[in-house]
């Protein structure tokens, strides 16, 4: 079990040190800001949509290792997904970070966040960019989401 925990930690550290899609997108269709004032996480998520499908997604900002790694993994997973597929991925992710239960059918870098449930304050860190992205997909005028609202 320790080997798995070490692997998960390595995945989070890798995505924190070398975040994927960490760039302000030129000419996005949608933009939303996520803010976690308690932890200091602040990210802007940029999206391009083709109909109901996310064709491009990126993010910029700063925050703790969990929030940055989660945003990095999120952008990699949501590219090419429909709004409904993105919502379903988030629901599974949220279930995992609140319970620690990993879906054995869907092992990906998301599984690295299974231990977050042990630290309830960190759940907000892990889900912040997801809330921003899903709000941006749902509403072109999404604006800002906060963990404290």
In a few lines, what is going on in this structure?
The chain contains 4 helices and 4 strands; from the N terminus they run H-E-E-E-H-H-H-E. The longest helix is centred in the last third of the chain and has 19 residues, at 120-138. Helix 1 packs across helix 2 (65-78), helix 2 (65-78) packs parallel to helix 4 and helix 3 runs antiparallel to helix 4 (120-138).
Tell me what you see in this structure.
It is a single chain. With 149 residues, the chain is an alpha+beta fold. The chain has a single domain (2-146), classed as Sufe protein. Chain: A, CATH 3.90.1010.10. It is built from 4 helices and 4 strands. Strands 3-2-1-4 form a 4-stranded mixed sheet, with helices on one face. Helix 1 crosses helix 2 (65-78) and helix 3 (83-99) runs antiparallel to helix 4 (120-138). The protein is globular and about 40 Å long. The mean pLDDT is 90.
Task: Itemize the secondary structure elements and their pairings.
Elements: H1 2-17, E1 30-36, E2 41-50, E3 53-62, H2 65-78, H3 83-99, H4 120-138, E4 143-146
Parallel strand pairs: 1-4
Antiparallel strand pairs: 1-2, 2-3
Helix pairs in contact: 1-2, 2-4, 3-4
Summary keywords:
21% strand; Sufe protein. Chain: A; 149 residues; 4 helices; alpha+beta
Strand order of the largest sheet: 3-2-1-4
| Distance linking N and C termini | 37 Å
Major β-sheet annotation:
4 strands, mixed
- Helix-strand topology string: HEEEHHHE
User: What's the number of structural domains?
Assistant: 1
Proportion of strand residues: 15-25%
Overall number of strands: 4
- The CATH architecture is Alpha-Beta Complex
């Amino acid at each position: 079990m320790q080997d798995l925990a070490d692997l998960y930690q390595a995945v989070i550290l890798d995505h924190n040190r070398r975040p994927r899609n960490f760039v302000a997108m030129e000419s996005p269709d949608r933009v939303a800001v996520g803010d976690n004032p308690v932890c200091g996480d602040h990210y802007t998520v940029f999206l391009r949509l083709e109909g109901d499908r996310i064709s491009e997604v990126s993010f910029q900002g700063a925050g703790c290792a969990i929030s940055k790694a989660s945003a990095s993994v999120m952008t990699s997973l949501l590219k090419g997904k429909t709004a409904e597929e993105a919502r379903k991925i988030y629901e599974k992710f949220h279930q995992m970070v609140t319970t620690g239960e990993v879906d054995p059918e869907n092992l990906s870098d998301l599984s690295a966040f299974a231990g977050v449930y042990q630290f309830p304050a960190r759940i907000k860190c892990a889900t912040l960019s997801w809330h921003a992205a899903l709000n941006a997909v749902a509403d072109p005028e999404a604006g800002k989401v906060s963990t404290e609202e």
